[in-house]
Amino acid sequence: MTARLGGFAAVLAAVLLAGCAALGPTPAPRAGGAGGAGNAGPASGAGAGAELPGQSEVSGATAALISQSRDQRDAGDLGAAAATIERALSIAPGEAALWLELAEIHLEQGDLDQAVEMARRALTLAPAGSNVAERARRLVGS
């Protein structure tokens, strides 16, 4: 029985630590500029999604999907990155930063109309004056 409790405690600790790690530091800023795999568009950069943990309760699953999507973007797989953010949106559809993340992916794909539509959605959900709102406003204006 003691071994069983010890195993349970180890699994519980691993799950809790994994959840904390998913909300870890914001990734380093991406190189700006148009075109090229892994290069973020002008609306991306430092602070991309930095408001997620403080803006609302973001689940570990959503945070893990955001991290996975950013890795996919960095690898140049924009289609997979968009699909991953769409999965995150199915969990947290009211999260403005997710809509902005999807907008930035569409911008990198060259789909300005879709990018602007997603940025407008982010703008309606983001708190006025927030980093997400300002970035969405810049993208809508482009």
Describe the structure.
It is a single chain. With 142 residues, the protein is mostly helical. The chain is 65% helix and 0% strand. It contains 7 helices and no strands. It has helices at residues 2-22, 52-55, 60-74, 78-91, 96-108, 112-125, 131-141. Helix 5 runs antiparallel to helix 6.
Distance N to C terminus: 63 Å
| Average residue pLDDT | 73
Strand content: under 5%
Tally of helical runs: 7
Number of strands: 0
**Overall geometry:** globular
What is the ordering of alpha helices and beta strands?
HHHHHHH
Radius of gyration: 17 Å
Low-confidence stretches: 2-57
Main sheet makeup: none
Fraction in helix: 55-70%
Structural class: mainly alpha
Oligomer: single chain
